[in-house]
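Task: complex structure prediction.
Instruction: return structure tokens for all chains below.
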Amino acid sequence: MTGTLRDLVTSSLALMDGPVLVYFLLINTSYLALIVLASLDLARHLREVPFSGREDTRTGRLTPPVSVIMPAYDEEVGIVEAVRAMLALRYPHLEVVVVDDGSRDGTYEVLRAAYDLVEVPRVIPDEVPTRGRVLSVHVPRTGREPLVVVRKENGGRSDAINVGVNTARSPLVCMVDADSILDPDSLLAVTKPFTDDPVRTVATGGAVRAVNGCGVRHGRVVDVRMPPRGLARVQAVEYLRAFMLGRAGWSRLGALVLISGAFGLFRRDVLVEVGGLDADCIGEDFELVVRIHRLMRDQRRDYRVEFIAEPVSWTEVPSTLEVLASPRRRWHRGLVEVLWKHRRMIGNPRYGRIGLVALPYYVVFELAAPVLELAGALLVPAGLLLGVVDPYFAFWFVIVAYGYALFVSVAALAVEEFSFHRYGRWRDLLAAVEASVAENVGYRQLTSWWRVQGLWAALTGRKQVWGVMTRQGFAALPEDDRAVQGRGAS
Amino acid sequence: MNAGAALALATLAVTAVLLALAAAIVARRALRRRRTARDEALAEPLRPLLLEILSGGPSEEVLAELADAPPQTWAAIEPGVVAMLGKIRGDAREALVELLDRRGTAERAVAETGSTWVTRRAMAAETLGLLGRPQGTAALLPLLGDPEVQVRVVAARSLGRCGGPGAAAALVPALVGPRRTPSGVVAAALLRLGPQAHPAATAALDHTDPLVRVTVLDLLGLTGATQAAPAVTALLEADPEPRVRVAAARALGRLGMPRGIPSLRAVLAPATDADLLAAAATALGEIGDEESVDDLARLLAHPAHRVARAAAGALAALPPEGTLALEQVGGAVAPEAGTQVESAAAHAREALAELAHVRQRTPAGAA
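Output:
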């Protein structure tokens, strides 16, 4: 038995050792390259802040109106404060559209009580296909707040957003999660490209950061801190490196294909043109942006999709392994679905940098990464135990796969420190460095396992199971000034 | 080099780079804190003087004291003072401009427009714009042809603030060409110039590029250039670009000129492009053309939501005939779901409800 295992490990390693080392070298180098590109972008952005003209956007007559769409499902605990925070954003022409997606709790009732809602006979067009029937539309009796609440039959997040797009009356539509906390100037910043270049700009995405551990007052993050717990802390560093700097790097390349559903701004007419979010696709945010690229390039239109690293949407990240596993499986499964759906674009020169760089990158370095990661993490220790791995190779593996990755994470922290430096305390800096180490020891391997499960589920066509969403909500906490503790979220 | 030595070297390299990064992070933070503390300490004694300026009535002594502040101290507060210009009005602004004049800020900015550094050219353009002096225009005009788009953007915005001869005439062509400036920036600058941009905008109505025609049409509409109504009407009637015709309809509505009514009514045919129909319907409501009520009422059943909604909005703006038409259409008894009659009735009821909602909120006696 031992002999068979030894033979298996030996032959696997003989086949993979060289390619695996090269693969890890390339993937970490690609992360580093994206961070370098992002740092160039951030440096330019910071240089331009004094003459960015943001104040003109706030006061300008040509600043385009924005409809913020908040899909809500069983959000009774935090929805009133979340809506209040959205209505208080610094933006001259704002409409907030809450889509109650058939909540089983008192989501609508608390909104009705807070804003004295009355039903109105509003006509919701069917410009974007939807599933769940709209039951009623409500607005505040006083008309003081630009708020619209749509009640509909349950159809899922994508369907709720699509109903929101149909309901929206503004030329720009901002998608946020019901528990997102936006910085006060977020909308001004993500709208800026639309104001400056309304003809070409079709979508912009904003940075998303982890809110766990931060101080929140009146729906605003007022004290930025690293999460108090290890798992959330690792994700805070991961969000910084992959979701903020990684996307800023892609944006700099002109090949941004992913805008987070937690904070994305789109031209409404373009959303109508592409048919809104695909309610059947698990990676709906990714799929939407890829579809927009596809439409624009098919029609040979001159367009821009941009990422703005400065404005921040704060979101709560899972603080338990059980809750974290579900979205990670789902994201990877969504990745498979999106790449398969748009396989015609991959490597196709017609789609420019999207077809020749971004999507092939996602195939090679996102889709395949967890399989090779897991293989390396299992085979190398097994080979060492069985005495079939050259210790030199094992050390090389650790240096290339983990030492280099640690360097990339610390480089991301350095970029953050040189640019936005939102984490002001020395202890947060130390916690971030610790999290960078922890990310490579255990966290990466675990997420790889979940991602492989997602890949397998996609290949075998298993039914997607959505995670359980449990929210404590800000309002339930006793003090106004408070730190967001870990809560479950899917 | 053998495998062991190479491995040791790689380990050493990774460790060294990690330590260097960590040291850079710590050094950056420490330096930033020190600089912030130094700037605050330098600015602290001048803060009450600046507050006095912002309160609107600074004495000559206050201005003189700030104007004579040591260069290092002034360097710590100047960026904040310049940025403040964009946020204040009236006497306080005039006093700040006076202070910046005494410190030679405008002269330095003019000189910096020729800098080889992109950031300096852009900042110089921003400063000249915030100062808002027509004299800044001459220095800003060449920057509209700057190789860097960010400099062109700031220059265009600042030209809108400074105004003066030649500003509008230079901004309109900046919309096109290899070194063009994004249209939103140019449109906002022209809008800020207001009536002084009318001659250049009117002259650009026959520009070959549709983007230019759309931009100047929006400008003329928003700034009430009634003298341009004939040319705008001509574009509505005959421009080959649909988006230009839409912009022309929009502009006529904003101008509120009855002479555009026949041309607007002429496009209210079912076969017309939906965007143009919606724009024409809205414009007729804005102008107040009661004779188009029947045509607008027919549009309530249009399959495109934006057309039906625009027609409903226009009818709501045309009391009493318009609201009467809405009541008649909206009162259709139990129409079959999904039919045009049902759709028209729904739009009519929506418009009436919104009208009632607005009336409910409007205090008695208010217009």
